[in-house]
Amino acid sequence: MQGLLNAFSYQIRLKPEIPHKLPTTKTGLLTQKLELVFPRRNCLNAISSASVDAHGGEEEEAKGTMDWELEFLGELDNKKKNQPTSKLLQETEGMDWCLRARKTALKSIQAKGWSHRMEDMITKKRKKKKNKKKLTPKEKMSKKSKQLLQDFDSDEDFDTQDIDALDGSTDLGRTVSMLGGGMFEEKKEKTMEDFVQRLSQFSGPSDRKKEINLNKAIVEAQTAEEVLEVTAETIMAVGKGLSPSPLSPLNIATALHRIAKNMEKVSMLETRRLAFARQREMSMLVGIAMTALPECSAQGISNISWALSKIGGELLYLSEMDRVAEVALTKVGGFNSQNVANIAGAFASMKHSASDLFLELSKRASVIIHTFQEQELAQVLWAFASLHESAEPLLDSLDKVFKDANQFICCPNKEQSNLNRENGVDNIGDLEINGIAHSHVLSFSRDQLGNIAWSYAVLGQMDRSFFSNVWKTLCQFEEQRISEQYREDIMFASQVHLVNQCLKLEYPHLHLSLERDLEKKIARAGKTKRFNQKMTSSFQKEVAHLLVSTGLDWIKEYVVDGYTLDGVVIDKKIAMEIDGPTHFSRNTGVPLGHTILKRRYITAAGWKVVSVSHQEWEELEGGFEQLDYLREILKEHL
């Protein structure tokens, strides 16, 4: 064996570019991985000069040992096939480097006593090749798709049997990879970039028939999994050279939209959605969508942003939403009312701030305000309030277009909310009331009115005429039944109660607060504990524990007009708010609308509000620093 290794020349040097790492198969065999990384080289002359004579069983054993060693070095197949290596490959210094790396690895294997394990594994590999069963066309396609995606996945798949066989061989893999000096990863990243670039050439020639067929397959898929499977197979085909690509911006946006829609259809749990979003195929699709964004239509951008909010929620797609905001800014002039509402709603539901984009959305909405449906209007106002983004142009246009109280209708149920459509009248259109024709009549549901009223309260714009008309319309339905058994009723009652409290405290001169009987009814429903269970986080418990050491007489969970304060010092009118991550924008860290409304109200009620930020608290080390921090923020209020 030593003669075999000494037969090769070591007059080589490392090159900056080496053959990139190719995909591994599900067998996970170390030998298979190394064969893919290190190209084979014909060394028949070296083999013949290094051969040794043996007798009987020793000769067969030596031959078997030689076979696995040669296969590990990449020589056995060439020997069997007797295919001469080209002169170009023989003179390639990269080949010499690869061969040298294999020899180094072989020495390490022998030194650590892993020879028998390697021989067993290679024998097992040969048997698997012989016993390989034929796959159906569908199975072949699925396998090809998985194999293609594995090319760009950083995690390697191993069979449990192979892991047990190798035991501590991870040290060997680490040693071999170090010889490359990180060039394996560099080459793989470059290959990934080339692949994505090939998939994202949307401005070239197109095959309309292929695009239509793919779109039809995506739309007809019944589940999110089926949509992803269809799209992944197309990605695989394009990666292998299918041209022109049917992955048009329209089809990419449609695929994401249908995945999210099918998730909504079956009410998929958040944990399942997040697991789905982290699949390699899904990550590839989202990556391609980000590349295709500039080529997408206004509707395509709207569909993609809506889909990302439904799939990833507030936990995923941070950089992707920044990208959406960047591209949407360049196309906002072409947005219709649905695009504005969907994009604003997507950012708000993900708690993702985008001030520049929201300013332009407000301007665009003000221009096309007469085209908004009631649901779109309620959604866009809720989005601006949730992120506490300025909406002056939008609010000004609402005051101008909807001046008359007769332009507002409240429908107590879904059947009545469809009354306009049954009469052939659009949601925002012409309607005759008491024999007088009024343009742009809004027919809101009860919950939509509640959302709009809450939004104006958060934005501090309750002195506007549009809010006044909305609130008066809502108050006309005093007779409407509110049950403590339904979440929707409780949510509505909570919103109305908060708005009414703000009117009484901050805008008493408007004289818009609820009548006494209705106020009691709303307050009673809003305070029910059926859907308002107070959850105390570990962060709140940790801060509350240290508050005792400040020497002040703290009272925990103190209620002020429907708001629960984490801790108060009554005699000094100090209110402590312990705000976790859900109180802030996930990308900028600014307080969200509901947090600002609470602080503003408690301040207006005469309390000195002190806020403990979760982010600042996490940066402190140990109880002493945390206690000093509490004393510092309380000092100016004592």
Q: How does this model look, in words?
A:
The protein is α/β, with parallel strands linked by helices. 60% of the residues lie in helices and 7% in strands. It is built from 33 helices and 7 strands. It has helices spanning 2-6, 30-37, 44-50, 56-73, 76-81, 87-90, 93-111, 115-130, 137-150, 160-166, 170-179, 183-199, 208-220, 224-239, 249-265, 270-277, 280-292, 298-312, 318-331, 337-349, 355-367, 374-386, 392-401, 414-417, 419-422, 446-459, 465-475, 487-506, 516-526, 538-547, 593-604, 614-618, 622-635, and strands at 408-411, 429-433, 436-445, 555-560, 563-569, 574-579, 608-613. A 4-stranded mixed β-sheet has the order 4-5-6-7, with helices on both faces. Helix 21 (355-367) packs parallel to helix 23 (392-401). Mean pLDDT is 76; it is low at 1-60, 76-81, 85-95, 148-181 and 414-438.
Instruction: Work out the strand percent.
Output: 5-15%
Backbone shape: globular
Instruction: From the alpha carbons, calculate the radius of gyration and give it in angstroms.
Output: 34 Å
Q: Strand pairing plus helix content: what structural class?
A: alpha/beta
Distance between the termini: 84 Å
Query: Biggest sheet: strands, sense, closure?
Result: 4 strands, mixed
Q: Count of DSSP helices? A: 33
Give the strand order of the largest sheet, numbering strands 1, 2, ... along the chain. Answer: 4-5-6-7
Helical amount: 55-70%
What is the strand tally?
A: 7
pLDDT averaged residue by residue: 76
Q: Point out poorly predicted stretches.
A: 1-60, 76-81, 85-95, 148-181, 414-438
List the topology elements.
Blueprint lengths: L1 H5 L23 H8 L6 H7 L5 H18 L2 H6 L5 H4 L2 H19 L3 H16 L6 H14 L9 H7 L3 H10 L3 H17 L8 H13 L3 H16 L9 H17 L4 H8 L2 H13 L5 H15 L5 H14 L5 H13 L5 H13 L6 H13 L5 H10 L6 E4 L2 H4 L1 H4 L6 E5 L2 E10 H14 L5 H11 L11 H20 L9 H11 L11 H10 L7 E6 L2 E7 L4 E6 L13 H12 L3 E6 H5 L3 H14 L3
Parallel strand pairs: 1-3, 6-7
Antiparallel strand pairs: 2-3, 4-5, 5-6
Helix pairs in contact: 4-8, 7-11, 9-14, 13-14, 13-15, 14-15, 14-17, 15-17, 15-18, 18-19, 18-20, 20-22, 21-23, 22-26, 26-27, 26-28, 28-29
